[in-house]
Amino acid sequence: MGQRYIKLSxxxxxxxxxxxxxxxxxxRGIVKGKQLSTGKILVYSDVxxxxxxESVATYARVSSSENRLNxxxxxxxxxSYANAKGYRVVKSVKEVGSGLNDxxxxxxxxxxxxSIRIIIVEHKDRFSRFGINYIKLLLEKQGRxxxxxxxxxxxxxxxxxxxVSIITSFTARLYGKHRSKRKTEKIIKELGEK
Length: 194
Known about the structure:
alpha/beta; Rossmann fold
């Protein structure tokens, strides 16, 4: 029985990647196949047989919308890594928000989706600035896994934005507590007068 081929564009769709990423895989030899005289690239259809049978998601994040180009590149690197490891990416999540923000909707959805067995991130601070070991432990208890490609911290600008977020958060909480205390005292006083 002969080898069955699929178009490179189909390979890209099957693996949640852009065509140019699939083309890079072809050029680097990550995916095998042949190129017709017309220029069309066909890859072996049994590439899918080598893919780990786990639902895998990638999670890319940047702090501000000014970095959207970096967000796309980050996502492409994650998908390329997953494909090189033989994982089948079923979801590619991109989000703009501070690493300190604990109300990132896309991350919530990803963590809530227990069908996703492996979550791949580029750096741990792309996922969370604090508590990463707690998150890893909880995922492991569910039979899931967080894969961090590069353990080195990234991007000075991101750290500065997070620093400002911490200061802003603590300042708001500090001033909020004073107001809250006065409000509680006022309520108690009013109740005593009745």
